[in-house]
Amino acid sequence: MATARRERFIRAQLAWMLGATLVLVLLDSLSYELVFVVSLIGFLVVVELTAPVAVTPAWRRRLLWLIGGGLVAFGYIVVRRILDILPPGVF
Questions:
Q1: Average pLDDT over the chain, rounded to an integer
Q2: Within-domain flag for 59
Q3: Per the UniProt record, which residue ranges are transmembrane (predicted)?
Q4: Cα-based torsion angle of the residue sequence 11, 16, 18, 22 in order, rounded to the nearest 10 degrees
Q5: Contact 9/1 with Cβ under 8 angstroms?
Q6: Helix and strand counts by DSSP (H, E) for the chain
Q7: Cα 14 from chain centre
């Protein structure tokens, strides 16, 4: 039972990532940063939509590390983008 739920989670995440990448290619906006951000958003959505009601399996608790790492990387991307926008003498 746990393996089926885990596989469903992985399939949903892969479908989201492939769909997002396809949409970004069709919009001619493909970049590593956008693929990462859209995949992170999809990951957070899939985690919430597939969350169990009563008992949390051990593999789902380990997802917190991935979420934390993804949010740190997202923060890095945002700071880097802000620094690119600012004029050179400001910071």
A1: 91
A2: yes
A3: 12-30, 36-56, 63-83
A4: 160
A5: no
A6: 4, 0
A7: 11
